[in-house]
Amino acid sequence: MIIALGILFLLGGLLLQGSVLSHLPVLGVRVDLVLLIVLAWSVLRGFPSAIAMAWGGGVLLDLVSGAPFGAHTFTLGLLAPATVLATRHLLTDSLLPALGIALAGTLCYDLVLLLALQASHVPVAWAAAFWSLVVPSAIVNTLAMPLVFVPLLRAAGRAAA
C-alpha cells in the first residue's frame, strides 16, 4: 500500500510540476514538487522507502528534463539518505524540521545540478545562478513544503494504520 501511495504522489507531483506549476513562477522560479515529495517522504518513511522514492523521482525527472541524464537521480539519491540521517533524532511528524530540510535540500539539490551542468560542458555563471536561481528556489520550496508535507503526513499515517 505504501509503495502504491509513493508512486501515486510521485506521478501526480511530476504532472503538476510539468503542467500547472511550470506556468506559475514565484520569484522567477518554479516549485520543485518532486524534490519536495522526495524530501518529505524521506523525513516520514526512513531509509528503504526514501531511496526508492529518490530513484523513482530522479528517473522520472531525468526522462522529462533537459539536464544531463542521471543528474536528478544522482542528486536525489544523495539527498534522500542525507535527509533520513539529518532527521533521525527529530520529531518527524513536525513541520519545522521539514521546513529546514526543504531549505537545505533545495540549496544542495540546485548546487549539485549546476555542478552536473558544468561537468557536461555547459557554462555556469555561478554568482548569477546562485542569486537568481538557487536562493529564490530555496525560499519558494521552503514556503511550499507545508503543502506537500501535511498531505503526505496524513496519507502515510492512514496507509500505516
Kindly describe this structure.
Helix content is 78%, strand content 0%. It is an all-alpha fold and 161 residues long. The protein has a single domain, classed as Orthogonal Bundle (Arp2/3 complex 21 kDa subunit ARPC3).
Indicate the structural class.
mainly alpha
Taking all Cα atoms into account, the compactness measure Rg is: 15 Å
Query: Helix amount, in percent?
Result: over 70%
The arrangement of helices and strands along the chain is HHHHHH
Distance between the termini: 11 Å
Helical stretch count?
6
Instruction: Say how many strands there are.
Output: 0
What is the element layout, followed by pairings?
Layout lengths: L1 H17 L14 H13 L1 H18 L6 H17 L7 H25 L6 H35 L1
Helix pairs in contact: 1-2, 1-3, 2-3, 2-4, 2-5, 2-6, 3-4, 4-5, 5-6
Keywords:
6 helices; globular; single chain; 78% helix; Arp2/3 complex 21 kDa subunit ARPC3
Brief account:
This protein is mostly helical. It has a single domain, classed as Orthogonal Bundle (Arp2/3 complex 21 kDa subunit ARPC3), CATH 1.10.1760. It has helices at 2-18, 33-45, 47-64, 71-87, 95-119, 126-160.
